[in-house]
Amino acid sequence: MTKIEIPLDHPRRGSLETREKIIEGHETHVVATAGLLAHGRGEAFDYLIGENTTELAEQASRAAVAAMLSAKHPVISVNGNICSLVPNELVELSEICGAPLEINLFYYRKEREDAIKNALFAAGAKEVLGTHDRPSATIPELSSNRRKVDPDGIGAGDVILVPLEDGDRTEALKALGKFVVTIDLNPMSRTAVYSDITIVDNVIRALPLMVEQAREMKDLPKDDLRLIVEDFDNTNNLATSVHIIMNHLEASIYDIDKMRQKFYAGENKQ
Ligand code: ATP
Ligand code: MG
């Protein structure tokens, strides 16, 4: 097992700890090799956003939870990355919202499916859909392995949470008339743009927040929940997310200058 000691005062400590989780997930076959690269793309956007949950992401998360709580048949789609990062929160959110967990893999291998299923059961899941021993229906719009959906899960679902999804599949889910909720650090990805609600945040922060919000909101009347969803505007959410990145980049111009001055003022010398 890869285990490195990360100094307590390391400026990227949280990010490096998350990276360790993904590496461990890869070693236990939960995460695909391509999943490591997808994570790296996410890290880069997290850096640009400031590695914090913005108020905007918090609002999007509230709308996402409202959509799941007011759905007839909400479903949570699970892949290797999300399972390695936040298995306990996936199970908790699934229970609070009554949304079954369905395994859905871009790079299918039975070994990976089993590793994910076992990780979800170890985190307390009572049922996992989308496994090879379950019935399957197909999404005609897709040609890959991922055409398969569980008829009792995504097949019958109305609101689908797809954290870290690929654009092709998001497009196919939309073509099937599903209400799609996603978590994606890149506000410009196809998934982010095609979804009905996009939480522009790291799943490592977003899932615990969703669990907390779901606990607070679960007894709200359905009509109130629907109003929260109706009030949400994803075009505005994504545009503002890009502005947040732009402002952050603008501010970093001054930070670079300050950092260089401090470094060359001699603080780096023994
Ligand atoms: P799309 O297919 O939607 O256009 P893409 O091809 O750029 O997106 P993919 O590799 O298909 O990207 O999916 C990975 C997506 O997940 C990226 O947009 C990346 O920013 C995002 N991502 C990766 N890790 C995280 C994370 N921990 N939290 C949130 N988002 C993440
Ligand atoms: Mg993609």
CATH homology superfamily name of the domain at 55-238: Phosphopantoate/pantothenate synthetase
- How much strand? 5-15%
Number of helices: 11
Name the CATH architecture of the domain at 55-238: 3-Layer(aba) Sandwich
Write down the overall geometry.
Answer: globular
Instruction: Tell me the distance between the termini.
Output: 35 Å
Write structural notes for this entry.
The protein has 270 residues and is an alpha/beta fold. It is built from eleven helices and eight strands. The chain has helices at 13-27, 33-49, 55-70, 80-85, 87-97, 110-122, 167-175, 190-194, 203-217, 222-231, 234-267, and strands at residues 74-78, 101-103, 128-129, 137-138, 148-149, 159-163, 179-183, 197-199. The strands form two sheets. Strands 3-2-1-6-7-8 form a six-stranded parallel sheet, with helices on both faces. A two-stranded antiparallel ribbon has the order 4-5. The longest helix has 34 residues, at 234-267. It starts with 12 loop residues before the first helix and ends with a helix. The model has no long low-confidence stretch (mean pLDDT 92). The structure holds adenosine-5'-triphosphate and magnesium ion. Magnesium ion is lined by residues 166-167.
